[in-house]
Design brief:
Length: about 625
């Protein structure tokens, strides 16, 4: 066939394809226009869109509505166990609440019930519960935070669609309304706001542009927290937000929440965090919810005063009852006049006994004990010229020179990824330095607590079996008695480790540490999964321990109670030429409060938080 004929056929085919494409586009445009003008179609609802509407005329009710919450007669169960009976949820808008109580009383169940609307709250309230980590996929950390605002994403998509098809209105929504709602959501500043939140939580620019699938569960939990802070809901529910944070991220979060103008309810085992951030306290105790003004320390003080008053009244009532009983016993069968008085006293006694003064006793809480070994002369551990790094050219730290003995009380602080846990492994002898050396006294016994150690336990066995593996000469009765000292009494000690709570597994790990009678304790984030009372018991046990302690923790209360020295670990950094500057381990000359103040000043300098003078401080 001549080339000319081939060209004609090709051009005809190309023209046909173009006509089909144009017809398809016209049909799509007509369908969109028809959808936009269809009678009775109306504006899309939140249920149809799949997100909470925070802007535009559909959210107008929120501007004038009472945002306070009061729901009575709350009954909550955990399985078959009743946790709260006849409770009242009462939240004043803009107040920061600490939700406290022993492990197992229903704190997390209450937050979950609010988030899942099992406790009915007004529909115009935007509620977010931070409980699970974000899904790991190909999106970057920054994209994942930005795209959590599905309303903004939908409006941007609608704007593009209406501009492409030259539409002034779609589904009852005009283009001018789209622009107004994007402005109301502060869409233009969304990306820098998301970047600031991620930076405050420890994500540098490279990490912000890393796919979420490459992050560990702990870092994905931080992304989930960043998503909630970015959306700024009316009611923010935070369940143990500090568990996966280092001191840097925790300090930033404290400062960020100080300027939070909406309602937040926080469950946390970190006493310092609660004291810094909360302004009221909800105490779940004996299936009831008690409300106190002030932070956690204020709550403890007021509750102690109430208890003292109750005990004084109970004592006075007890004396009155004893006096009435004595009078009735003496004169109840005597002279007619005295017998009549005795009958009157009997009625008074009945009223007093029907209305006893209820004293709010605490449940007895755990007492830990770490017996130490016999004294060893210093230094127990000597580190000279040591360096370590997992990858060549990326040294975590170098030129380490220090000694540790049975009088050392050191807290290791620094950002995640700087090598704090690695530092403990270096002391323990689990890894060897790439340069220099670490020597230990020949009779030195070390005992280390870490979450990894708990994860490596034989979870199919019970606590008694676990302890007997440490010493085969120990009988079942001796092991059970010993475990009871660490809060693992009765049948609990015979349950498989896999069914124990995180706090109970930690108690088993503490029991193992104590059994070893070490000269030096190495503790890596020991407060995770512990309640506030158990952390207090841990601090008391460490202070009674006649040996050395090296502690990695972000818990302000624990560090302040037990540490004499603060050692700061800083991350290695990438140089402009692509090489890496080694990280450092330095003794911080000051208290933990002063260390946090330094971090706050750094955040202000980097514009990651509002300056205190601008933001003000919460009472």
């Amino acid at each position: 066939m001549p080339p000319k004929c081939k060209n004609k056929k090709f051009l005809a085919k190309q023209k046909e394809l173009e006509e089909q494409k144009a017809a398809k586009a016209a049909a799509e445009q007509a369908a969109v226009a028809a959808e936009a003008t269809q009678e009775g179609d109306g504006r899309p609802t939140a249920e149809e869109l799949g997100f909470f509407i925070r802007s535009g005329p559909d959210a107008a009710l929120r501007a004038t509505a009472n945002m306070d919450i009061k729901v009575g007669n709350i009954v909550l169960f955990g399985g078959k166990q009743e946790l709260i009976s006849g409770g009242t949820l009462q939240l004043t808008y803009g107040t920061h609440y600490g939700l406290v109580g022993r492990n197992g009383v229903g704190k997390s169940t209450l937050l979950r019930s609010i988030a899942q609307k099992a406790i009915k709250l007004p529909d115009f309230l935007h509620i977010i519960h931070v409980e699970q980590e974000c899904v790991g996929d190909q999106r970057t950390a920054l994209e994942t935070v930005l795209q959590v605002d599905t309303e903004r994403e939908w409006l941007l998509d609608l704007e593009r669609k209406m501009n492409d098809m030259n539409l002034d209105e779609h589904s009852g929504i005009t283009l001018s309304e789209v622009y107004e709602r994007l402005e109301e959501l502060d869409s233009d500043s969304a990306e820098p706001r998301a970047a600031v939140i991620l930076a405050g939580l420890g994500f540098d620019p490279q990490m912000q542009n890393t796919p979420t699938r490459e992050f560990s569960g702990g870092w994905r939990m931080r992304i989930a927290l960043a998503q909630a802070l970015f959306l700024s809901p009316d009611l923010l529910l935070l369940d143990e937000p500090t568990n996966h944070l280092d001191v840097h991220a925790l300090t930033w979060l404290e400062e960020f929440l100080l300027t939070w103008e909406k309602t937040v309810v926080i469950v946390s085992h970190d006493r310092g965090f609660l004291n810094s951030v909360t302004t009221s306290t909800i105490f779940i105790h004996r299936k009831r919810m008690w409300y106190y003004g002030g932070n956690y320390d204020t709550f403890l003080k007021v509750r102690a005063e109430h208890r003292a008053n109750q005990m004084a009244m109970a004592k006075e009532q007890g004396a009155r009852v004893a006096h009435l009983k004595q009078f009735i016993a003496r004169f109840g069968q005597g002279h007619k006049k005295m017998a009549k008085q005795a009958q009157s006293r009997q009625k008074m006694l009945a009223r007093l006994q029907d209305e006893p003064v209820e004293v709010d006793y605490d449940d007895p809480y755990l007492k830990l004990d770490f017996p130490s070994a016999t004294r060893l002369p210093p230094p127990c551990i000597s580190v000279q010229g040591a360096a370590f790094g997992y990858k060549e050219g990326r040294t975590l730290y170098q030129n380490l020179d220090f000694g540790l003995d049975m009088d050392s009380r050191v807290a290791i602080v620094g950002p995640n990824g700087a090598g704090k846990s690695t530092f403990l492994h270096l002391l323990m002898g689990k890894i060897i330095p790439t340069e220099g050396w670490v020597s230990r006294h020949t009779k030195l016994r070390l005992a280390m607590f870490s979450q990894h150690h708990i994860e490596m336990m034989d979870v199919k066995s019970d606590s008694v079996t676990h302890m007997r593996r440490l010493d085969k000469d120990v009988s079942v009765e001796e092991a059970r008695k010993y475990l009871g000292r660490f809060g693992l009494q009765g049948e609990l000690a015979l349950k498989p480790i896999e069914v124990l709570s995180g706090g109970q597994k930690s108690r088993l790990a503490f029991a193992e540490l104590a059994w070893r009678q070490p000269h030096i304790l190495l503790l890596d984030e020991p407060t995770n999964h512990l309640d506030l009372e158990t952390i207090e018991a841990l601090a008391m046990a460490i202070n009674k321990f006649d040996g050395g302690v090296v502690l990695v923790s972000h818990d302000e209360r624990l560090i302040s109670l037990v540490a004499d020295e603060i050692w700061s670990v800083d991350r290695f950094e990438k140089n402009k030429d692509g090489t890496y500057r080694p990280g450092t381990v330095k003794v911080f000359d000051g208290s933990f409060d002063e260390y946090k103040a330094r971090l706050t000043a750094e955040f202000e300098q980097k514009a990651l938080i509002k300056r205190r003078k601008e933001a003000g401080t919460r009472a």
